[in-house]
Amino acid sequence: AGVSRSVAVVTAYLMKTEGLSWEEAYAAVRAAKPDAEMNPGFQAQLKLYEAMGCTVDVSSPLYKQYRLQVLTECYSELQDLPQEVFAADPTSTCQTPDTEILYRCRKCRRALFRSSSILSHTEGSGPTAFAHKRITGSAQLRGGGRETCTSYFTEPVQWMEPALLGVLEGQLLCPKCASKLGSFSWRGERCSCGRWVTPAFQIHKSRVDEARTLPLGNIQAAKT
Ligand SMILES: [Zn+2]
Ligand SMILES: [Zn+2]
């Protein structure tokens, strides 16, 4: 493992300093040191590193989705999930930054998640895509993909925890009014656009409303 790790570190260094793709960098390392090897876990991490532009941005949707995938593999029982997996419940923290959109239950207005929890995906491409052949051929058009996703895929939020533990899939219900919001599956679900997301926590767009955060002084006015 020590060898694999040092190979990965050198490969990552070459990617960053020389602007190489992870494959080019790995090939360069192996050319210099033919017995250099890297396990598939490190290879996956370097692919992610490349996709993030050779920076590690822990708020990136790519990073969050990758972390969830690793977690799913490690916690086969799905009990006692580490708390940092869950995004804070928007009702437990008083302020949402101006840059974020808050999503509320359409029925009872309970705050459910913030825009930073959305793990967006592009249609039919990327590391976790299962080519859905009828769609991927023609639907690569940029920008046209937005309308075809009928759900938001999010990271798990604190209020989902009781529903998620110990089961592989199920429904996501509003924690306040219990109306159905969407579903989850640790094994993954297919978005309406054809893209597989693993694991998947999806909230139907029709069940929530966007609430842009207002400057502090306007909050009281907006409530009345
Ligand atoms: Zn989609
Ligand atoms: Zn509700």
Automatic annotation (TrEMBL):
Listed InterPro entries: Dual-sp_phosphatase_cat-dom, Prot-tyrosine_phosphatase-like
Gene Ontology molecular functions: protein tyrosine phosphatase activity; protein tyrosine/serine/threonine phosphatase activity
Annotated Dual specificity phosphatase catalytic domain residues: 1-50
Enzyme Commission number: 3.1.3.48
Catalytic class of the enzyme: hydrolase
Alphabetized UniProt keyword annotations: Hydrolase, Protein phosphatase
GO CC terms, sorted: nucleus
Gene3D superfamilies: Protein tyrosine phosphatase superfamily
UniProt KW Hydrolase keyword: yes
Keyword Hydrolase: yes
Assigned protein family: Belongs to the protein-tyrosine phosphatase family. Non-receptor class dual specificity subfamily.
Listed name of the protein: protein-tyrosine-phosphatase
Taxonomy of the source species: Eukaryota, Metazoa, Chordata, Craniata, Vertebrata
Originating gene: Dusp12
